[in-house]
Design goal:
mainly alpha, Arc Repressor Mutant, subunit A, 3 helices
Length: about 90
């Protein structure tokens, strides 16, 4: 993994790592689960990454507050919005 001289990781690598974590989880991940998997990232940083990934339609979110889970986008629905994972309702 690439690192700068000061030890910081490039932002794109972190975004990609967070995305890969979400994509690898069939049941989706909560913010707390993402923070556990990426302890080197600040909570607010991960929140910004999630917001960007949702805006880019690379992931989708289900639930509210602490129950909110983030999922990979498998296939677009007829309306063009991301499809919900089986068994989940928005």
């Amino acid at each position: 993994m690439a690192r700068f001289l000061n030890g910081a990781k490039p932002a794109m690598t972190s975004n990609t790592e967070v995305l890969h974590s979400i994509q690898a989880s069939a049941d989706g991940l909560t913010l707390v689960e993402l923070l556990t998997r990426h302890p080197d990232l600040a909570r607010r940083t991960v929140q910004r990454m999630i917001a960007t990934l949702i805006e880019e339609r690379r992931i989708t979110a289900m639930g509210k507050a602490r129950a909110r889970r983030y999922f990979r986008v498998d296939a677009p629905s007829k309306a063009g919005a991301p499809a919900a994972p089986a068994g989940w309702f928005t």
